[in-house]
Amino acid sequence: xxxxxxxxxxxxxxxxxxxxxxxxxxxxxxxxxxxxxxxxxxxxxxxxxxxxxxxxxxxxxxxxxxxxxxxxxxxxxxxxxxxxxxxxxxxxxxxxxxxxxxxxxxxxxxxxxxxxxxxxxxxxxxxxxxxxxxxxxxxxxxxxxxxxxxxxxxxxxxxxxxxxxxxxxxxxxxxxxxxxxxxxxxxxxxxxxxxxxxxxxxxxxxxxxxxxxxxxxxxxxxxxxxxxxxxxxxxxxxxxxxxxxxxxxxxxxxxxxxxxxxxxxx
Length: 266
Known about the structure:
- The protein is α+β, with helices and mostly antiparallel strands and 266 residues long.
- It folds into two domains: 2-85, 2-Layer Sandwich (Phosphorylase Kinase, domain 1); 101-263, Orthogonal Bundle (Transferase(Phosphotransferase), domain 1), CATH 1.10.510.
- Helix content is 29%, strand content 18%.
- It has helices at 48-61, 101-117, 174-177, 185-198, 210-219, 234-243, 255-263, and strands spanning 7-15, 19-26, 32-39, 70-75, 79-85, 120-121, 130-132, 138-140, 147-148.
- It has a five-stranded antiparallel beta sheet, covered by helices on one side. A two-stranded antiparallel ribbon has the order 6-9.
- It starts with 6 loop residues before the first strand and ends with a helix.
């Protein structure tokens, strides 16, 4: 990785077949940054450059305080990388009753509403993608699966043995699991699962067997007794249940309506 010689790589934060994310420090200034490195999986791959450029362009367009800034974009023969703002507070993992939950949820709603207004759908929302900085500001990360809403459709392979989804299946909306056309409401579904997690309920479709979880996501109502004890009163259960409707048209008309019903006007 000679292309990265101006940075000291401190720790690998995540690893995928196509990309790695590192905590790093710029040697000259000592500034902490995050670096996402994209490896060319196949020298003959024709869309490798387009894939990483898509994420870079998306982040550049999302000029919002709840998204990380792109500080640098560089590409070479067999790798490319983005240098991003360092988020110094870690994953937002509140305990039930944490007074910050409503504030962080509001920031998540505002960030996603902004992205949706530009035509972008995240498609991979899960608790690990909601970070916080030391100032208490939420940062939504990982835009590798973002697409414009006018090009969205996740196609599935023809045989069940070959099934592979883009994203994290246990946080996917039914239409995403089934390979149907998507819009911003698939993000509402996933966000409802994140909020349930923050409120202490856990995963309302969860099961030790991931295949059972996927079946429940597509075919069953949420089980609000999955937490022990349940931290959600009946009103909040009803609000989240609507956001988790199997039919996207039955969900909340906007993310702001969803937030207001769940947390009130805060």
